Amino acid sequence: MGYSTLSSQALSAPPYLMAFLVVLVTALYSDRYRNRSLFICFHALLASSGYAMIAIAGVFKAGPMWRYWGVYPAASQLGPFIGTALYPEKDKPYYVHGMAACAGFMLLVAALSLWLRWILQKKNEIAESTTYSVICGEEDNDESPDEDGKLVEKTNFFRYML
């Protein structure tokens, strides 16, 4: 991007600090609302938009400020861990192919999180509609018998957090 080593190090800290704060806030609200998938989908779409913004800035040779602002939504993703494969030396300084690949994978994450939500929602609906009866007090029953040996209805209380 054309910055000195010291400047580039100073500019790399704010996106990661922001990502740290976003993770804390996301954890708080996903626990409060007992909903994981929509938060995952939202952040995957946000990261995808960040990578797409960086890639588009590279295609149009936009200034470094456009690329820097694209880093904020993309900061906490796995792109940096596989950088040698996605960001070869020949693609510098814009690395359009790597940014586009990361944007595509984040879209895939969003789609997979919605698909998993749909699957788990169906399993929860089945569990809610399923009750079974147990006659307590029979010898082959593993359940603890009711004191009078009555018929007891049981329900599957486990639900997947969506």
What features would you describe in this structure?
The chain is mainly alpha-helical and 162 residues long. It is built from five helices and two strands; from the N terminus they run H-H-H-H-H-E-E. The protein has helices spanning 5-32, 37-59, 64-74, 83-86, 96-129, and strands at residues 131-135, 151-155. It has a two-stranded antiparallel sheet. Helix 1 packs parallel to helix 3 (64-74) and helix 2 runs antiparallel to helix 3. It is elongated. It starts with a helix and ends in a 7-residue tail after the last strand. The mean pLDDT is 78.
Give a brief outline of the structure.
The chain is mostly helical. The protein contains 5 helices and 2 strands, in the order αααααββ. Strands 1-2 form a two-stranded antiparallel sheet.
Keywords:
elongated, 162 residues, 5 helices, two-stranded antiparallel sheet, mainly alpha
